[in-house]
């Protein structure tokens, strides 16, 4: 029996384990928590009124697994067999070591990180350089660019590579596992930055309104066309989409509303709702404008939003949140009491803002103290979150008894 078959067998066994059944029971099952990327973004199927603690999840950057498992990133995104082997090793290691609420599923997402949409549009991408996927910073569009009315996705050079990679993984695992063909999950702003260039597009926002809208119109049209093509190619219905934006705070809330909100709402209407809205930057001041989108299932409050309460105050309606905690600041380089204090503040902010469904998630962990020490700190952090949650539950129970 090959190593991959042994890993698949172990995954099958653990998927049916009592612990995994417990974890799965915490999440809505109508939409998959594994989507356009390999990380879990689930929605709790209960609220704080149940008196049960909200879920806690953990994630690490690939550099952790380079050190802990010997992952070779120069092969991970270019060799389907190698990808499958290490995807399974990472998932199994996380499940067995981290006592959080991230479940195992039989979903295997093929993902090329930030390069997917830019690669489709012709940007130079790098998959075999020993780091996470990246792309050229050179602009491939300018004022003289004539954007095509449509793209032949089946003949697209980048997608031909993706189709071959996906097909080999699918053949390896058989029908028992759900291999996920890459989704289009970047929002219009993120894709525009990748093909125009960060500096160039940032200047365009202020100096060239016509080109800005031409680029955003083009990438929004291609996003819709790709999603439709993907649905037909796989014979799958179109599901709610995701909007990952690279760095919304490079412009003011006013500019976000002027330039990006209309295109995001157009995609929201096309998808019949946005499942996961994400930005890498601090969107605190932008939350009221972002929350004009008519339907967001899970709203990311990321690691750059140090004080989550200010963002919660900007929400316009009840909203399920994924509250991400920056690992280096609040897990790796702080004391246990400092870590617990930050979690207490998050829970208190959610209570004050009447947030009834949320997920507390570690994010961005890289090697800082040494990989084994870092992983020990992350495992302990899960316990600390549980301790803080228990404090609130016990306090509520005492209050109800009085």
TrEMBL record:
GO terms for molecular function: uroporphyrinogen decarboxylase activity. Residues 111-387 form the Uroporphyrinogen decarboxylase (URO-D) domain. InterPro entries: Methanogen_methyltrans (IPR052024), UROD/MetE-like_sf (IPR038071), Uroporphyrinogen_deCOase (IPR000257). SUPFAM superfamilies: UROD/MetE-like. One of its GO terms (biological process) is porphyrin-containing compound biosynthetic process. Pfam families: URO-D. This is Uroporphyrinogen decarboxylase (URO-D) domain-containing protein. It comes from marine sediment metagenome. The lineage of its organism: unclassified sequences, metagenomes, ecological metagenomes.
